[in-house]
Amino acid sequence: xxxxxxxxxxxxxxxxxxxxxxxxxxxxxxxxxxxxxxxxxxxxxxxxxxxxxxxxxxxxxxxxxxxxxxxxxxxxxxxxxxxxxxxxxxxxxxxxxxxxxxxxxxxxxxxxxxxxxxxxxxxxxxxxxxxxxxxxxxxxxxxxxxxxxxxxxxxxxxxxxxxxxxxxxxxxxxxxxxxxxxxxxxxxxxxxxxxxxxxx
Length: 200
Description:
Structural class: alpha+beta
Order of helices and strands: HEEEEEEEEHHEEEE
Shape: flat
């Protein structure tokens, strides 16, 4: 009797799995709109599309900020590949700038800088490639894999015009050994330009 229940359960699970993988409805995009109250006032409206396949999932999020005067500002998009979306993004204010941290490609973060006077927007993808091309990084001459395999660069903190990124990278070409550095950036209060200033 126990064997019969086991076989029946196994067969049903196999049938369900086959139906799930053949029927694309299991992987259809899911749409969601979330409004997040902001510490700087106003609210951030996040329109997301969730996609999944057999290997991973991702969120594609379009951001719109509505300030206390009911003005609407476009904050472009973010991408979260294989990462949980916590739905708690907060804008940071520095002089005439509003700064948003979100995701970019696999293992990286994005900074969106909006100038509230000119309504101009600058998008910075803080990737392993952009870090290692910077002259401040090159000056340090740290050992690292040239293919940047499995490196990650995530924003740890934003305070005023300072941004701290934790960069995790493999140190040798044929090794699984990792190192981590804190990469510090400053944002120019007028132009919105992002500049690497030091590595700890």
